[in-house]
Amino acid sequence: MIARRQFLGMSGSAAAALLVPMSLLPRLARAQSVPLLDPLSQPRFVNPLPNPLAPNYIYQPTGIDPVTRQPLFDIGVQQIRHDAGLIDPATGRRLSHTAWAYGTAAQPAIYPGYSFNLWQGQGVKVRYSNQLNGIMYPTDVPVDQTLHWADPQNSGNLPNAPYTGPVPLAAHQHGGDTAYLSDGLPDAWATPDNGITGRLFNPLYAYDNRQEATQLWYHDHTVGATRLNVYMGLAGNYFIRDANEMALQLPKYPYEVPLLIQDRTFLSNGELYYAYVDPDTPGAPIPTHLPENFGDTILVNGVAWPVLDVEPRKYRFRVLNGSDARFYNMQLSNNAPFVQIGSDLGLLNAPVSMSVLSMGPGERCDVVIDFSRMGGQTVILNNDANAPYPSGDAANPATTGQVMAFRVSKPLSGVPDRPIPRDLRPLLGPVPVLSQAERTRKILLFEGTDSIGRLQTMGGIVDASRPNLNGTLNFVDPITENPQVGDTEIWEFYNTTGDAHPIHMHLVDFRVLGRQKFSGTITDKTNSDGSLGGVLDESSVKLLGKVRKPAAEEAGKKDTAKMFPGEVTRVIAKFNRPGEYLYHCHILSHEDHEMMRPYYVGRIPQGR
Question: Reduced to 3 states, what is the DSSP secondary structure of residue 391?
Fold first, then answer.
C-alpha cells in the first residue's frame, strides 16, 4: 500500500521504479506429486496447425427453433481426451490430456470448439448444455472455494477443502451485441442437466448477429471459475460475415486461418497443471487462487508450437489471445510486416503495416501476412512480451518466446492473390465516430489484499460525490454504472497498479480516445467482504504530460483494450440495449478474484 501511495504522488523515473508488479511470483507455485513436463523436451514446428475454418470444424445446425423458425444449435460440453502434439521424452509415445470441449450430437466435442460461421442478420438460437455428469475438477486444476464463486452446493468459503461437487458452466459470447439473458453472464451458470442454476440462467440463447463482419469468440464465464473452465478447453471462434467483407475479396479458406493462442503447463503424464499453491503468502489455503497463471507451453488452435505449410502468397490470420494472463508482442523472425486490417469488432478504415503485433488477453487482430517473397523459408512467430506485462519476467526465447512457425513450402495455386484494398469499408463507410457523451465516469483499477492476505485485483469508482461507494468495490456490491438506453458515455479507467489490464466491456463496441499519465493520493479502504482496497482521492488527481492518441490499429471498434500502469485510459461507448452487463479485466485470474463489476443499462430492477 505504501509503494502505491508513493507512486501516485510522484512522476518520472522515481515513480517508474515503484511500478514493480506485486503479482510477480519469483518461483513456480506447485504442489503436484507428478513432475512437470519439461517444455524444452517437446517438438517444435512439427505438428500441423488445424484450421478452425475447415468445413469439418464449422458448426452445423442441429435443428430448427419451433418458435422463431431460426436455425438451432444444440451444443453440449463433454469431457474428452485431447492430443496437443506432446510426447513423453523418455519413450517417444504421444501424450494426451483430459479436456472439456464443446460439441453436438453429430459433431463430437473438440478443443478448441467448433467455429460459428454465420451471415450478418441471420438470427440463431443456441442451447448450451452442461453434460459433465459425474465429472469433477481434476486434482491438478482444483477449485479455490475461498473465492466468491458459483458454489453450487452453497457450502460457503471453505479453505483447504477439495471441491467434489458438480461442475458449473456458463457460455459467454465475447464481443456480442446481445440481449443480456443471452450474453452468458457469470451468474448464468448451470450444473449438469441444469440441476442447479445461477440467478441469470437462461436455457436458450438468442443471437441476432446484426453486427458487421467480425470475429467474436465464445468461452466459459462462470463466476469465480472462469480461469479453470477456460483452461480445461472451453473456448471457440464465432465469425459474422457481411457483404462489405465479401466485396473486398480478402483471402478465404484455406488462405484464411484463425489462430487461437493460449498457454498451458503440463505434467509429465501429459495432464494439465494449473498452479494452486502460493509460496509468497504463508498460511494461504491449498488449493489457493494465484494472481496470474502463466503456462510454459504455447498452444495454437490446441496444438503445441505448430507449423502451418503455406504457399508464397497472402494469408489472412484471425488472431485471438485466449490466454489466462499472458500478453503477446509478436514479430516474424525475418522481420516481415503484419498488415492489420481489423481489430476486435470489425474492419479498420484502412490497412496498417506494423512490425509488432501486440495483444492482451481477449483481444483479436485481423492481419494479413504476405509470404510471396519467402519461398523456401521457415518463418517463426516470436513473442517478447514480459509476464506480467509490461514489467515482469522476460519470455524464454526457447519456449514462451516462440508461438508457431510458417513453412513456405507449398506450390502456388491458381487462386488469385489479390492486393489488400486501401478502403476496407466501401459498403459501410468509415468506422462511426462517437461524440457528445451524456456523462463521464471514472473507474478505479487497484491491487489490494483479500481477507486472507493474498493479492486481490479490484475495480471501483473515483467519485467523491458517492462517499459510501467511492473506491474499490466487490462484484456483489451495488451497481454504480447505470447508463440509459441510447446514452453515449466516456469511461475513464485509472490504473493505479503495476500491471497492464486488458479491460473488456460486455455489449458495447467502444472507441479508445487516448491515454495519459496521472498522479494522485490513495487512502486505505476496507471493502464489504473484509478485503483491503483503496480510495483514489478525486481532488488529488493530476494529469501529467500529453494525451497519447490511440495508434492506427486501435482506431476501430473495440471491446477489450490495454490499460497501462499509471495511466488513465479513456474510451467512449453507446449503450443500445437494456439489461445487466459487465466490465472486467480479461486476465481470467483477475476477473475471478474481484476485478469484475456489473453495470445496468436502463432502469435497475428493485432488489438488484
Answer: coil
The candidate with the shortest Cα–Cα distance to 261, out of 318, 315, 299, is 299
Can you name the residues that pair with 207 across neighbouring β-strands? 124
Does the reported pTM lie above 0.85?
yes
Cβ atoms 163, 129 nearer than 8 A:
no
- Strand, helix or coil for residue 553: helix
Nearest to 7 by CA among 491, 327, 446, 390: 446
The residue among 199, 228, 66 whose CA lies nearest residue 591 is: 228
Concatenate the DSSP letters of all residues of 566-604 into one string. TEEEEEEEE--S-EEEEEEESSHHHHTTT-EEEEEESSP
> Contact at 8 Å (CB) between 455 and 525?
no
Topology classification of domain 51-246: Immunoglobulin-like (2.60.40)
- In this predicted structure, the answer to whether residue 4 has a pLDDT above a threshold of 60 is no
> Mean pLDDT score of the chain, rounded to an integer?
94
Residue 247 makes CB contacts below 8 A (sequence gap 6+) with 426, 427
Question: Which amino acid makes up residue 163?
Answer: Y
Q: Which helix (H) or strand (E) holds 231?
A: helix 226-231
In this structure, which amino acid lies at residue 338?
F
The CB-based long-range contact list for 54-58 (8 Å cut-off, 24+ gap) reads 54/253, 54/254, 57/110, 57/114, 57/115, 58/114, 58/115, 58/116, 58/117
Task: Select the CATH number that applies to the domain covering 2-24+432-601 from these four: 3.40.109.10, 2.60.40.420, 2.70.70.10, 1.20.120.450.
Answer: 2.60.40.420
- Residue pLDDT, tens place only, 110-163: 999 999 999 999 999 999 999 999 999 999 999 999 999 999 999 988 999 899
- Residue 18: is its pLDDT beyond 80? no
